[in-house]
Amino acid sequence: MRALIVGVALLFCQVAEVLAAPTQAQVDAGRRLFARCTNCHEVGPGARNGFGPQLNAVVGRKAGSEPAYAYSPALKNARFVWNEQNLVAFIRDSEKVVPGNKMRFLSFMSEKQAAEIVAYLRTQGAPTPPPKK
Questions:
Q1: Contacts for 57-62: CB closer than 8 Å, 24+ residues apart
Q2: Roughly what angle, to the nearest 10 degrees, separates helices 24-34 and 111-121?
Q3: By the 8 A CB rule, do 98 and 90 touch?
Q4: 33-56: per-residue pLDDT in tens?
Q5: Residue 131 burial by CB count (10 A; 0-12/13-18/19+): exposed, middle or buried?
Q6: How many angstroms separate the CA atoms of 30 and 25, rounded?
Q7: Which CATH class is domain 2-121?
């Protein structure tokens, strides 16, 4: 039991370290891992909503609030703001965090990997509006 507690504490420290002050290596690892997310989500200049919402400036955004994205009723009614901890939890098990949401990503990644994705997302600023036609 003690070994389990020590192991969980060490893992928590690793995740907390990535979230508190990510290194460039952690951000780069998150960028590579985010490739798994690009079938549904975009980031960067000109990012648009697709099958999933664009994720620029997601940290600090109210859940279910990206304009012009058709969220599930569960996420529309979520009453929290995305922070690093709940994003990591959502990446790991979206159904546990927001039951009834429509994200269907079967995560096989560790807490540390999910934290690295969040470290990368923290580097993605506000969305750029699409060009005027």
A1: 57/124, 57/125, 57/126, 57/127, 58/82, 58/87, 58/121, 58/124, 59/83, 59/84, 59/87, 59/118, 59/121, 59/122
A2: 100
A3: yes
A4: 999 999 999 999 999 999 999 999
A5: exposed
A6: 9
A7: mainly alpha
Percentage of the residues of the chain whose pLDDT score is greater than 70 = 80
The DSSP H or E segment spanning 123 is none
Residues pairing with 62 in the sheet? 81
Neighbours of 54 (CB within 10 A): 21
Instruction: Say if residues 11 and 88 touch (Cβ distance below 8 Å).
Output: no
Residue 13 has what pLDDT? 47
Q: Is 57:127 a contact under the CB 8 Å cutoff?
A: yes
The Cα-based distances of 54 to 7, 24, 67, 79 in angstroms read 35, 23, 10, 19
Q: Determine how many CB atoms are found less than 10 A away from the CB of residue 6.
A: 10
